[in-house]
Amino acid sequence: MPPWCLQRCLRQPAKLTLRAARPSCYISAESGTRRRQQADNGRSGTTLWATSKSGFSTVDGGGADGPAAQWQTSLQELLEVYRNYRNAAATRPPAAPGCSTDLKKQLKAAAREAAKHVEHCDIDTATALMACLVHVSRRCKCVELYSGLLRLLLHALRSRGDQLVTQDNRTTPFDFGSLIETPRLEGLRQDEALAALLLRSLRLYELRNTPKPLLDDVFTVVNSNMYRWSPDQLVEVCRDLAWVCRFCERERFSGLLRKSIALLSDCTSKTKTTLSRMQLIAVIRALSVVKQDAAPLASRVNHLVSALLAAEQGDSPSDIQEKLTLHYRRAKGNVHLLHVALISGIHLDAAVVHALIDGVMQFCTDYFAATCRVWQMKSAQPNAHDYNTIDPRVANLLYAKCANKVVRLPGSLDPDHAPRPRAPKLEERYQAVVAALSRLLEGGKLAFCRGLKSCEARLRVSNRNIYDQLDDAARSFMKAVACFRLGEPRPAPSDGMARALRHLGYRPVPLMVDGAFQVNCIDHRRRLFCDLCNDKEARPRPGGGAPVYNAATELKLRCLEAAGWRGATVLQAEWRRLPEEGRVALLRAKLATIDKHA
Questions:
Q1: What are the backbone dihedrals phi and psi of residue 509, each rounded to the nearest 5 degrees, phi first?
Q2: pTM
Q3: Are 36 and 21 within 8 A, CB to CB?
Q4: CA quadruple 401, 402, 407, 411: dihedral, nearest 10
Q5: How far is CA 340 from CA 298, 387, 451, in A?
Q6: What's phi and psi for 549, nearest 5 deg?
Q7: CB under 8 Å to 26, separation ≥6 — which residues?
Q8: What is the tens place of the pLDDT at every residue in 485-527?
């Protein structure tokens, strides 16, 4: 080789190219002139996408020991471990705890190994891997691999190049059909679906210390794809944006959250669709994150709730069992929605609250009428004697003289006794509600009964302006709920506090107030109580002062105060580290403060 040619070859950096035309891959070192000739002849090498500070660039595949080959090997191992882990998690009964733990460790180790070569991953494979990581994120989080895939896909969405996204003929070298449904994988090729997946992954992986450049990319991608999402996707986006706004960055994402809720309301109005109760609850929870700026959007939420209730009117099956099941699901949804709205501080109109309560009240009366034993035991023979259909005046005399009275169905709720439809009397509805709630509680519907009691207490104590706007029937229903008892008081959780209170001359007794709130009563005549709050119920304030209570404990204290009770609360964290003498001194000081303010 002539010296001038050798010098020219030394000046031109050699490049390693993996040829796809040959059956066996090999490495060749070629000059820039040779590469240009290959490009002219259409014999381009197989390239992969890699990340760099300036963006995406093409890198060479390498040989059997090259980076691309290492990526393919680590990816195959990762997919095999992921398949085993998913199959073990889906088995019923579930696999042994030791087996699941070992598979989780193997999955994290394989993900860490694959994260070292993630820059050689193509976009389709990265999208499928991201969907797999999100699918198992609740049980196993592979943070290293997830971070690399997130940066790669965000840059791909921002670039919006022809070779990066929005191509229909893209293929992935690996088969993900056994891991992800084909329609799901095809749908993720759209920009808006991939953007929603990346936003959801931020919430599921709980990356609270997300770098600002990464948040900038997320903001840009979400803002550019917002008008492409359907109402169902917008609900999920609102929930994800609320998490980002709460834990990552509030300034910019709060405006994006309000924009998404407004767009959701407009989309449902234009398409004449209604959201489910769970979707409405997700929207209300998201709106509570920016509730100081939520006043303009509260009317939109009220409109969404009203549209749902209006669409359900007249939609009822004829079968009594199916009807009761459907009405119970709707009533439970109404209670849950109202409870979340009252806790979140989102203003609901009095008409919307009345409509929600009316659905629950109608279910309670229907449930009592359908499950009343006396009504179900009535004979079908017309001449048979029936104590429930005799003259009311004779019935009053008969029941007044008999020691063992027969529980009878209120006459206005019996279709045989009152063929003409008329509104049930308030007293009869009151009795039917208490009986229905008691039967529901015996049937295991504790969440429904507890939520209804909580809604009644919040409306009566914290939202008195809405409570006063209800009609007589709704207020009587609320009074019936207030009289219903959830259960008997349980024993005191701390024997040490009971001993300390007895040392001070008190006799603590567990007591139920308003049928829902248990207190450690130390003086029933003066209405004094002393409770021990665990770490979930209350925590100390960082700057000192009164402790921070959760929503349930705060409601309990407000209801006790409204009922005339006074008391002291002791934090379990403070109580645990004190000796016996220190506990007695702490209780003496707190109870002396109560007597001082009396």
A1: -140, 130
A2: 0.75
A3: no
A4: -30
A5: 14, 45, 10
A6: -100, 155
A7: 19, 63
A8: 888 777 766 788 888 899 888 888 888 888 888 888 988 888 9
Residues 375 and 360: their CA atoms lie apart, in Å, by 22
Give 3-9 contacts, CB < 8 A, sequence gap 24+: none
First CA to last CA distance, the chain: 106
Query: Averaged over 526-537, what is the pLDDT?
Result: 90
Contact 191, 157 (CB under 8 A): yes
**Tens digit of pLDDT for each residue in 60-94?**
444 556 777 888 888 888 888 888 888 887 775 55
Per-residue three-class SS string for 505-532:
CCCCEEEEECCCEEEEEEECCCCEEEEE
DSSP alpha helix (H) spans, 377-445? 392-401, 426-442
* Closest of 74, 70, 95, 71 to residue 85, by C-alpha: 95
Q: For the CA atoms of the chain, what is the radius of gyration?
A: 34
Predicted confidence band of residue 59 (pLDDT cuts 50, 70, 90):
very low
How would DSSP label each residue in 227-267?
A: GG--HHHHHHHHHHHHHHHHHT-SHHHHHHHHHHHHHHHHH
| Rounded Cα gap, residues 547 and 549, in angstroms | 6
The sign of the dihedral angle between the CA atoms of 208, 209, 215, 216 is positive
How many CB atoms lie under 10 A from the CB of residue 23? 4
Section 352-379 average pLDDT: 79
**Is residue 342's pLDDT more than 90?**
yes
pLDDT value of position 419: 47
Write out 337-351 in H/E/C secondary structure.
Answer: HHHHHHHHCCCCCHH
Domain ranges of the chain: 3-45, 67-310, 329-372+409-483, 495-597
Specify whether the CB–CB gap between 481 and 453 falls below 8 A. Answer: yes
Q: From CA 126, how far away is CA 119, in angstroms rounded?
A: 10
Give mean pLDDT, residues 532-540: 88
Burial class (CB in 10 A: 0-12, 13-18, 19+), 22: exposed
**Partners of residue 517 on adjacent β-strands:** 513
Residue 367 contacts residue 439 (beta carbons within 8 Å): yes
Does residue 235 register a pLDDT over 60? yes
Average pLDDT, the chain: 78
Instruction: Please identify which residue in the block is written with the tokens 């449930």.
Output: 367
- Phi, psi for 408 (deg, rounded to 5): -115, 155
More confident residue, 383 or 190: 190
Residue 101 has pLDDT above 70, yes or no: yes
